[in-house]
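Re: the multi-chain job from yesterday

Posting the exact lines I submitted so nobody has to dig through the queue logs.
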Amino acid sequence: MSTTTTLPLYRQLAAHYRGAIEAGSLQPGARLPSLRSLMQLHDVSLSTALQLCRTLESDGWAEARERSGYFVRRPQRLGMAPMDEPDADVQPDPAQYVGIHSRVSDFVARRRAADVKLNLSIARAAPQFYPADALRAAMTRALRLHPELVAGVPPLRGDPQFRTVLAKRAVAAGMVLSPDEVLVTNGCIEALNLALRAVAQPGDTIAVESPTFYGLLQVLESLGLRALEIPTSPQTGLSIEALELAARTYGDIKAVVVVPHLQNPLGSVMPDAHKQRLVQLCDAQGIALIEDDTYTELLDAEQPPRAIKSWDATGNVIHCASMHKILAPGLRLGWISAGRWQARVEMLKYTQSRNNEVLSQRGAGEFMATGAYDRHLRRLRTALRSQRERTAEAIAKYFPEGTRLNLPPGGLQLWVELPAGCASAQVFDAALQQGILVAPGFLFSNSARSDHFLRLNCGWPYDAEIDGALRTLGGIAGQVARAA
Amino acid sequence: MSTTTTLPLYRQLAAHYRGAIEAGSLQPGARLPSLRSLMQLHDVSLSTALQLCRTLESDGWAEARERSGYFVRRPQRLGMAPMDEPDADVQPDPAQYVGIHSRVSDFVARRRAADVKLNLSIARAAPQFYPADALRAAMTRALRLHPELVAGVPPLRGDPQFRTVLAKRAVAAGMVLSPDEVLVTNGCIEALNLALRAVAQPGDTIAVESPTFYGLLQVLESLGLRALEIPTSPQTGLSIEALELAARTYGDIKAVVVVPHLQNPLGSVMPDAHKQRLVQLCDAQGIALIEDDTYTELLDAEQPPRAIKSWDATGNVIHCASMHKILAPGLRLGWISAGRWQARVEMLKYTQSRNNEVLSQRGAGEFMATGAYDRHLRRLRTALRSQRERTAEAIAKYFPEGTRLNLPPGGLQLWVELPAGCASAQVFDAALQQGILVAPGFLFSNSARSDHFLRLNCGWPYDAEIDGALRTLGGIAGQVARAA
Ligand SMILES: Cc1ncc(COP(=O)(O)O)c(C=O)c1O
Ligand SMILES: Cc1ncc(COP(=O)(O)O)c(C=O)c1O
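And the result, structure tokens for all chains:
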């Protein structure tokens, strides 16, 4: 092994092991040497041996198994084509102003009527992946020590301790916020409502990614706002060119809502250069930039990515985030930092739901202030990566030819493109009859563009039941595709 | 003492004691005989002696003091004139469509900048009046037994146990609701937002009581709705004639919001006949009727009054309520039952903030299912009555001539009419300089009608500090009145 390179030692060692795996001398499933063996074998410190294993893990060449060490795996090479990049020139379709409500209501009604055995329509991990015990312990402690949590009035803006922890963690994403610039909300969805109500009036046009999560389309419709869908790359997210074009064509875009990291449903991640251009474009055009940070902590990355707001010099970026899917689905904790609209957003929050209850904030804040939070996130990411990959393998195996898929670098779900003409509504119906609930593509756009897509949750531990359900789904998709 | 009457024994005894108090043979402050002495004196059972004391207490002739028995008091006879009844013919003033936001923002900003020693601007009891320990115990138990409260997703509509308790209690107010017709919200304020969003579009006109609490005026303005203020009696609440007249004059009233019991700020209580006429009028005119039940449990009454919704035969009444001020100010628990708009309100709730966290619902639901809840309410009402009366006495003593006041039959506050021309804004400013925060009348109407009123909280235990503050306030009001 050459030592002339300037790479750190653990990186050199990682390259060595990757070579061994690629050459087949280390087979997938084989156990890697223990930390102690690695230290002896390569004459390195414990910390270097640890960094080596973590690097192999985060690059996808090894996986940790609880209490038994690291095991070789091969990063996914799917037997499926990736999705096409969108055409930035697409003229917005007036039909897309049509509402999403009735479709979602229909979806909800059918879901309620059905006997759902496996829910793949959500975007959430299974309960056992969340640190319920530690959070319960922290909340129990807070209840014991602080009677005022029940009898006193919740403080303005949210619990100061929690806001301080959030402001501190925001530094890693490049945001410099004082705790008073953090306003706690009932989940990210309330943050988005407040952001939109602060910057726009009913009748105004809001640019959104296409496809986007139907929750956002519902919010827009319920507020009387018009969604202008902007083509979005499955790799790099919102097309800045397309937004530029739309801004030139429609002079009146009031705001744009983007999910820069692990976009829902695409899983795309915006490169930093795109984020910067977006900030500039929005500044120049007077478009408020609303950043939805819901999934960032689920990104498989050594460093947390920079928030769009980290480039905000004018207060034009509104940052919205949530703990709901990364820390505890039972808690409805989100937050917003609204730049130049902060005072207006605070007033709207007070008017809409008053201050949040403190207890869950206190519990979450205590937990997030410790190393346990990052350990939890690391475990969650590792579990999700393996579940995404196994789901993708099953799709490659069971779904009809012509199915396409991008494997996103993190997150809770896969966005699956069925063969052209294979209507997601039909797949949804047939699957529901088998007790399998999927999120049909038509929910993710007001246009017909996503009608032949499905979004599948990867939050459940991969097992025979999931595998069987994916085989069933693949069979259904094949039938629908052949009949199309 | 005659025994020929058909009144129950305890009632006869109560009349006897009332006579003695009115005759002056029992002086205010004197200790009533102990339960044991009453039993011997009148040869009655313990339960009759207890009923006697409770009756004297609820009629206002005695007050219980923790661990030392019952003491004589005299129901209030104030040396002040009551307020005038409003003129139902008042033509709505277009100026009242002007916003409340800037005034409230100004109020909030000044409050934050000041060093507040005593806050009389709130509408809430002191923390010690709420059953924090029992609620904390119930919540701690729930946390121990139910990990899914943290890691699972909160159920649709709210915790089923809590909704069941709410539906059960609603029966006493004449409402027949299934638990599935109860939707849990973040306080009554969210319920009001949802109700208004369900029935009206921006630009629509909503009839409200005048004066009304500024929270409602803020909600209307933030939703782009126009408040049409309807004259309201300090005794009997919303003037049905005035609403009828307004409906004839302005054909386009979309909804009316009323607080039938202990209206904020007036403290008025609508007679049942008015409630019935209101239901009929709204049905006939196609006006949605939104009932805000926030304070009902604080009414001094042997029987809970009937909710407006109890007369609703068409689904036209939306019932909104809250636990925030009667059970626990630290919990943000409210609920809504929206009649024919139920599905739409559920959808808007999901879109605005998703389902509520479960823990506080579980704690509140457990507590409310026991007799402890009614005991708590009884204690709270008793304390508030004495505090209201002492505050009223102090106002009679310290405030300038021409001050007027109605003593409401329950609730957290007094609405004080200063002599004509005595601007509440000036009183507010001067009081704040002394560290006393009051709610100035101008916040309670978009018109100038309430400019010479103050709303004073009676939730603090009456003591020398409160008494001193009321004397200071009276002095300030006198100065402002003389300068006017
Ligand atoms: C991108 C995105 N933003 C916001 C939300 C809502 O977040 P919360 O549950 O925190 O309200 C979701 C959930 O579906 C989401 O996917
Ligand atoms: C009449 C009335 N309704 C509703 C509210 C708000 O209630 P909650 O705190 O439950 O949101 C208030 C509080 O000020 C009020 O006075």
